[in-house]
Structure formats: C-alpha cells, structure tokens
Queue: 2 jobs
Job 1
Amino acid sequence: MSLRIALLGLLTAYGSASGYDLTKGFERSVAHVWQAGHSQIYPELAKMTADGLVTVAAEGARGRKIYSITPEGRAELRAWLIGHDPSGPARSEVALQAFLLPLLETREALDVLERLKTHMEHKLAELEALRAAKQAASAQEGTSGVRFGDLALDLGLRQVRTSLQWADDAIAQLGRQATTEEGADPS
Amino acid sequence: MSLRIALLGLLTAYGSASGYDLTKGFERSVAHVWQAGHSQIYPELAKMTADGLVTVAAEGARGRKIYSITPEGRAELRAWLIGHDPSGPARSEVALQAFLLPLLETREALDVLERLKTHMEHKLAELEALRAAKQAASAQEGTSGVRFGDLALDLGLRQVRTSLQWADDAIAQLGRQATTEEGADPS
DNA sequence: GATTGACATGTCATTGCTTACATGTCACCT
DNA sequence: AGGTGACATGTAAGCAATGACATGTCAATC
C-alpha cells in the first residue's frame, strides 16, 4: 500500500513523470524514507493505471510513458495521509544487533559498535549533503515556508544523531565494564 | 536471514525453547526490534533443523517440541553479529507521512502531527514499562553489567523521545506559519 | 562506424511476510 | 458433561520485495 502512496506523492510533487523519473526520484529524495527499485515500480504503475489512480498522459521518445495523477489518485493519497495510523512493523537490523550484542565478549562487542558508528556517520553525512543541496536549490527561487520532504529530512537527521549518541554512550559503558573486569580478574 | 538470527539469539538466551515459547518471546522482549508470527516461526524452525542450526532436544506434552541451538547455530549467530553490515531497507510509514505532509493544508497537517504524537507517547509508555519490568526482575537476582536486550531498549527509548521532540517542533513551526498566513491574508 | 553509457521498460524466480484456515490437547470452571 | 481459554503446531493463499535476466533507443565519443 505504502508504495502506491509514495508514488502518488512523488507524482503530485512532479506534476507528471515517467516510471524512470520516479525510479530516480526514489534514489534521490525519498530514499531515506522509502525504497523501491524499478522492478517494483513499473508493475505497480500498471496496476494503479488499471485502478484509475494514475493515467498515461503522453508517450515520449524511447517508449517513455508519462504518468499523471487522477482525481481518484489525489483522493486516495489524501485519505491515507489524514486517516492512516502508522503501525509500520518494527524491523531494524541495527536494533537487532544491539539486542544481541551482550552475547559477544566485550572486546568483540566494542568492535561491532565502532563499525555501527562509522556506518551512522556516513549516513549522517549523506543526509546533511541532501539538506545542503535542498537549501541551495530553494535559495535560488524565493520559495518560503515548509517544503516537500523538509520535515522528513529533519526527522531523519535527528534520528541518526540520536543513534550516534547512543553508540558513543554504549561504547563508553562497555569500555568501563571491560576495565573493571580486568581489575577484578587479572588472570 | 534476520528472522533466523533473532530465533538463534532467543534460543541462546533461553537455553532451549519450543516454537510456542519463541512466538511468545517475539511478542514480549524482541517486539520492538523484530516481529514475526507463529506461521513464520514454525516453518523457519523446520528449515533450521534441516540446516543443522538447531535440534529437537525433547518432545513434551501436547506435541510440544523443545529446540536447542547447535554449535553450527552458534557459529552462524556469531558470524552474523560480527560480520554483518546492517543495511536494513529504510522503510518508515511515519517518515513517509512526514515527507508528504506539506501536501495537506496547514490545519490538516497539524491534526496529523497531533495524532502521530499521541501514537509516539503510547509507544514511549510501553518501552518505559518494559524497562521498569526488566529492572525489577534484575533487582531480585544480583546480576550486574549489561544484560540481553538492554542496549536495544535504550536505543529504542532514545529514538522515540527524539521523534516526540521532532513532532513538537514541527507542530510549533507549522503553527507559526499558520498565524503569519492569517495575518498576511485576512480574507 | 563502433562502442559506451545514460535513457527506458519490462519479466521472472525466489524469498519474506501476513492473514486466514485448520486441528488437536489439556486444565479449569460450571 | 460441556464450555472456555490457554497451550501447541501446523498449512495455504496471496501480496510485497529483491535480484537477475532481457530488450531496445538514442547521443556522444573515439
């Protein structure tokens, strides 16, 4: 269901777009919020056309099909935004690793945490680059107010920073434990 | 793959357990980290038995099968913890709603944010209850140090708090925008 | 003229996951 | 004796998602 919504949202933002454009859109702006490859997008667009949520407005060069959203599509999107209670299945590989970490020896656990931290630093850098790019783009036009995707980007940035902090604190905590263990048990 | 890991992890923690026990375990402790119903767990246990990662150690009353982890299973779990780079597909319905929020009118967007906030407050309460229960349990025994699931619970709590903060700030920001709009356009 | 690479759209097999169906045991209460 | 509800294990249909396969156009470079 959510894939449909994401597509309808992008289509609203773009006015009209091809499957290819939307695939690129997923790689860029929405990537940190929802993911989908072209092999999922093309069939979904076909289904949505059959359901009357989008239409092929025009066909361009190289078999390019340009979709645009229909009133039914707009209604569907609106209804989801207003009425949908997010219950997204909590599935996080990072959290799972964190959960199981005490199964490892302290040294090994520290290594894993360091790797996780590096990973998060990369992600933070990506998101900050994205924000910088957005700000540069919006400075050119005189647009003001909250723009498409801004709130989600802010949320993403905050969450990555929180995760980083957690990793730091977890490393410190395990580090303390390791040294007291050494002191208590100098084998 | 991650389901296998979660099962191996729980099995290590419990020593040995039936499919039913593991299903309950998913509802309780791991719920905020990974989810799975019994219809996914039973077949997976069968496959893992075939692959030699677990064995049926005993059969109890009511057809109860008690599984325990094998050395191969332990190795698999260890290898994943140490070597797996978490790349978990970023798919969050909350973030998607946040992303698309500017498509709504300010008033409607504020309503959605309030609902999200309530939702997050419930989740926060759940996690805090879980933490309280854990602390009570560990106070009875004299266990010290970092326990199974503690780090993940801490991460979860921090992330929910961050999300709540974000919601509050987003509400404030949209609220300001709404009042300036009224002032500029008193139709 | 040939190759490279971005553009552009699709299918298919497999795996993961959800929901519903289906069956049966055992303890306790009435 | 019958009902309820926790215990216990499975199967099957169908949707969602991934990764690999497959095909073809067009512009620019070599």
Job 2
Amino acid sequence: MNTKYAGFESPGITVDLVLFTVNENHLKGMLVKRAEEPFRNDWSLPGGFIKLGESLDDAAQRILVEKTGVSDVYMEQLYTFGAPKRDPRSRVITVAYIALIPWQSLPQPESDKVTDLGWFPVDQLPKLAFDHKEIIHYAATRLRAKVSYSNIVYGLMPKQFRLSELQSMYESIINDKLDKRNFRKRMLATGLLKETGKKDIAGAHRPAMLYQFKSKEIVFL
Amino acid sequence: MNTKYAGFESPGITVDLVLFTVNENHLKGMLVKRAEEPFRNDWSLPGGFIKLGESLDDAAQRILVEKTGVSDVYMEQLYTFGAPKRDPRSRVITVAYIALIPWQSLPQPESDKVTDLGWFPVDQLPKLAFDHKEIIHYAATRLRAKVSYSNIVYGLMPKQFRLSELQSMYESIINDKLDKRNFRKRMLATGLLKETGKKDIAGAHRPAMLYQFKSKEIVFL
DNA sequence: ATACTAAGTGTATAATGAACACTAAGTATG
DNA sequence: CATACTTAGTGTTCATTATACACTTAGTAT
C-alpha cells in the first residue's frame, strides 16, 4: 500500500470524525462497530481514506453524511495523529475532525434493528480501536475549553430553545453547575441571542420564552 | 507517486515548518529558496516528506535540525493543509508546525556566503511557493492569539532578559504598545518569572535587573 | 557638573465576575 | 376551585481585575 516518492515511503491518510452531541445531560460521542480486522467488533471513530480529488474538509463532510445522513453541521479540524504504530498493519496518518450535532437533529434509529452505531458518554467509553480513545479525549478537552470562550454550543442547540436548556447544555459539557442569574446576564450580554416571541408551553409550570441565535457564526467572546 | 489502498489513492504527506523569531521589533519567519521545480527560486517554508518510521513531531524536529542545526526549541502542530491543488504536480497534504527560536540562539550565517535561507517580517513576505503564504498567516494569527493567554513567548526569549526586553517582545508580536507599569505588574503576578540577581550593565543608563523563567513549561494564564 | 537614557515604582477609577433568594405564571390534584 | 407543584424570571452587593497615568533613580557620556 505504501509507495516511494522522492525516496520516502508514503503513508496512508484517513480522516476520522469525533461527532459530539449532548443528550440526557451527557456529552456523547458517536462510535461505529468495526466489521473488519484489525480490531474487528471493537468500537471506533467513523472515518475513512481520503479520495484523491477531495479536500480534507470535504472528506470529513462525506464521512459525516455516509454515517449519519446529516449534513450542514458545525465541523472543525482538530489535530493530526501520526504515531508510526497507531495502525498495527501499516503506516496510516489520520486527520481528526470535531463535528457537533444537536440531538434533536439526529435521524431516529430504527429501534427493532441491530445497529453498528452507538452514542457513548465521553467519560465512559468502551474499548476503542487504534488510538481513538486518545483522539476523543483530545477532542473533548478542546470542546470543553472552547465552550468557555466562544459560542460553539450553537452547533449543539436546536433552532429554538429556553435559556434553561442553553444553561443545561453548558453544564453538561463542562460537567459543573452554573448560577442561573449570572448565566442569563452573561448570555444576553453577548448580544448573540434574540427572543423569538414564542413561548414554550410544555410542562406544568410557567412557560419560558424561546430564544435563538441571531446568526450561525461562531465567534470568540 | 500515488498508490491504491482500499480503493483510494494515497496522497503524499509532508511536514512544513513555520519557524518564528523576533528581531528588530519584527516577528519574522524563516524561508528557504527552492532549488527545484515547481516554484524553483521562489521562497518557501522549510519542509519535507515524512519517513515511514517517524512520528509527525519527529519529522518536524528532523527538518528543524536539517535547516538550522538547532534543536530543543518550542514546537507545536499548527494545522493540516490538504486542498487538492495545493501542489500543482500531485496530491500532497502537509502537516504544518509552528516553531519558535530566540534570535540570539540562531547560528550566525557566514556573511560572505550566498545563502538560500532568509528571515522575513510576516507582514512583508515575498512571493511564496504553494499555499505557504496562507500557512504563515495562519501561524502568525495563532501565535498572536496565544501570546495573550499563555507564556509562549518563553520560546522566543534568551535565558536571561530585562523586563523591558520582555515587553518589547510582546509589543513586536502583537504590533501594539503596552503600558510599562501594568505590564510589569501583570508579568510578575503570573509567578512565572524570577530575578537572577544579576544586572544588565550595558548602556549609558540605569542598569536593569535580569529575569528568567522559572520553568520551561508553557502554561495558560 | 550637567545632560542623557532607560529602570523602576503606586494610586485612583472603571469594568468585570461571583455570590445570593424571592416572586411569577402556568399545570395537576383532591 | 383552592392548594400544591414546577420551572421562569429578576437585582444588588462585594470582590477582583484591568486601565490610565508621571515622576524619581542610577548609571554613562561629555
């Protein structure tokens, strides 16, 4: 599989996707069960080899669509992992991407069918193929840091939401409680949110105003 | 040069180095003049193909030593660039690294010899090969951001220095003036510096205390 | 002795972040 | 239909941090 170029062997290149969502107050990553050796039947990140005509971003996008049927989600390049022995068969370098998707946007799995897809809390991962555990942890660390100085949670929220849902999103990611009044002040002070005028009338309690982000731009605060 | 693997062509992989220093109040990047096509005689980033048994970090380190004779400098992976046409001949993906070196640590070029190495202010770059201008600008943006929330300037300072030299370093990188008293307060408050006890007696003026970093750790502030 | 240069130092004000508890508006229930 | 229940919504005080700002000190050069 490897070849010579200018006197050097050329490794293979893959793109791996760390696809995050938040559900039941947990930051979760999507894994797929490997059908082939090595690591057959272990869980792993969705990924694949890069095609000759496609950019790295395009490859990540393609893999996302192949595995989830979803497109138009937030994605960014994370890091490139290239330890010589990370694939036991041969030299493979992987460019890892982070992608974020709101739980509500995920296609419902057909519940009566066994699936090779799973969502796992990032702090309770099963045995993973290759160096994928390291990659997910690196991704989670980046996401958790970025949450505190950007509006990257945009990528995980449904179109409209209550402020309490937004707060819960932050709390799930950083794994800590936040003060309600300070949180609301801070969020509204960013100027990135707007009221929709609609109210969420679900539940036996006072209805909440629904908000949305004014723009899909991810900005540093 | 490309080969098949699992039905996909395998691109070549290089590592390119954005080596920064600061000199004469300017953030400068090191460039090498290309001896071969494509882009023969244009300036470019130092780089090279990855060897089969070496990690990405090792490759970056090797290229650093090959081009400068220096090792033991601060390095971090920057980003991976993989646009399909970034190399006009064939598909090559490059993993870019940032490296920092104090101007004082650079080996003196033999001045009577024409050299294929040059240091250029990042805001006054010559025509560059490939997408290397984009890479340098991306690197400079990252460095400028990181300077404000870490002690990454450690990698650019000599062992001992006056606080005014440290301030000048910050000012050169961010291209802005800082308040002397506030700067000193802030730096000393980090607890990362210590007095050496020595004084710098150069110049017709009051001698300055020399400081050094307590540790080589790069930390977030 | 005087001029010159960079080193070194403190305070007042503004802005930001953190702690903290009650009232409001609905639904469910007996 | 009165009461219990649940989540929504709202301000103030205090501590910390960031900013603006100017003069004295210690040496060298002439």
